[in-house]
Specification:
Length: 410
């Protein structure tokens, strides 16, 4: 028996090869590197017999720019209330600052939660993100599954340093064991200008000063992120891309009938889901109501988890019946998977969820319930747990094959 014939060995070899092939390419959202990897992935999938291509969609290349500009507006509003102190000028400054700061807080909340994003659309120039879309399975089937990941990579930043979280995990393991979601990292960014607005309206300089200081700190973090190059992104999210390629290869070896299969590798996820929003504009109407989504997101940390929901601002669960369906698939093939966890970060899953589609998000965590090397320069191929990636690929394949046999609707 050759190495490639041993159970799971070809998956492991495929995952390692895919991750190493693209980790050296700088892949910030909408960058030439993102496009280069998209073209290479499309060619790889065509080589496996899929009808695959690269689709360019309008996108903003960074979340740091729009949210940084809005934070700067909130900071300016806070400073305005500090320098205008007397008479009618003071009153006009207070109310003007309140309006600007409140609008900034609302726009930040809208942006990070995947809303209308009017500020991006109106105020910022747009570039092009590059999605890879491949079609397989049974083209005559009435139901569809979309298995997806993203191939762009994030910049790093001081805010992503995990040393404090690791210290907490070492000294307070009970806190980590009880945790069901990560800290809401976007709340302070919204809270800063919101406090500026409250302080301006109420005339309370302490509240306004606190909001101004918090907004200044947030802006410093965003500037730091905005000036950084891309990290290698081996786990986040070439691990998901590698698992996607494994699924493609498995379905090419042993095709399914009764189910259309769409394989999507989105760009600009690290700009807060800009690529899949473009995919939604171009494809959601053609997918039909019988479509399910399976997201492979940072699956190389060691322990697979099936998220219950996500929400940077308000937590929203994914449809329960499909989560149960995926958990049953994991049980049937003997893949351990953590349950009961929710994310305060956002993933591409939020877009199909907003459109009413059943969606399952498969992620991975280490023993501290952290994504290893998250948005750090140390996110390199040698630090990816390939066994975890292979398990994610096997689970996604099992979901596809069971969907071909039965409808998961309750």
């Amino acid at each position: 028996m050759t190495a490639d014939q041993r159970p799971d060995e070809w998956r492991r070899r495929t995952c390692d090869e895919v991750i190493r092939a693209y980790a050296g390419v700088a892949r910030l959202p909408t960058s030439p590197g993102e496009r280069r990897v998209a073209v290479a992935l499309a060619e790889r999938l065509r080589g496996l017999g899929y009808r695959a291509g690269v689709e360019s969609v309008r996108a903003t290349g960074s979340y740091a720019l729009p949210i940084g500009l809005l934070s700067a507006a909130g900071l300016a509003a806070g400073l305005l209330t500090r320098v205008s102190r007397y008479g009618t000028r003071r009153t006009a400054a207070r109310w003007g600052a309140a309006v600007v700061a409140a609008a900034a807080a609302a726009a930040i909340a809208d942006d990070v939660s995947g809303g209308a994003r009017w500020f991006r659309r109106v105020a910022l120039p747009h570039r092009w993100a590059h999605n890879v879309v491949a079609y397989g399975g049974d083209p005559s089937a009435s139901r569809t599954v979309v298995v997806f990941a993203h191939h762009d990579a994030a910049p790093s930043g001081v805010i992503f340093d995990q040393r404090v979280l690791r210290w907490v995990a070492r000294h307070f393991p009970g806190v980590i064991a009880a945790a069901k979601e990560n800290p809401p990292t976007w709340w302070p960014v919204i809270l800063g200008p919101a406090l500026v607005a409250v302080g301006a309206v109420s005339g309370d300089r302490r509240i306004g000063g606190l909001g101004t200081a918090l907004t200044a700190v947030n802006l410093a973090f965003l500037i730091d992120v905005g000036r950084r190059p891309a990290v290698p992104g081996a786990n986040d999210n070439l691990s998901g891309v590698a698992a996607l390629v494994c699924v493609a290869r498995a379905l090419q070896r042993d095709p399914v009938s009764g189910l259309r299969v769409v394989l999507l590798s989105a760009g600009a996820e690290e700009a807060l889901q800009e690529g899949i929003r473009g995919f939604a504009r171009g494809h959601f109407l053609e997918l039909g109501p019988g479509t399910c989504f399976v997201n492979l997101e940072s699956v190389g940390s060691g322990r697979l988890a099936l998220l219950e929901g996500e929400g940077p601002v308000l937590m929203r669960d994914y449809p329960e019946s499909f989560r149960r369906f995926v958990a049953e698939c994991a049980r049937d093939i003997g893949v351990p998977i953590l349950r009961g966890l929710r994310s305060r970060n956002s993933t591409d899953s939020e877009v199909p969820r907003r459109h009413g589609y059943p969606v399952a998000t498969i992620v991975s965590l280490d023993h501290d319930k952290l994504i290893t090397h998250y948005h750090l320069d140390s996110d390199v191929p040698d630090n990816v747990d390939l066994d975890s990636v292979v398990s994610a690929a096997e689970l996604a394949e099992a979901v596809v094959r069971r969907l071909a046999r039965e409808d998961p609707a309750p």
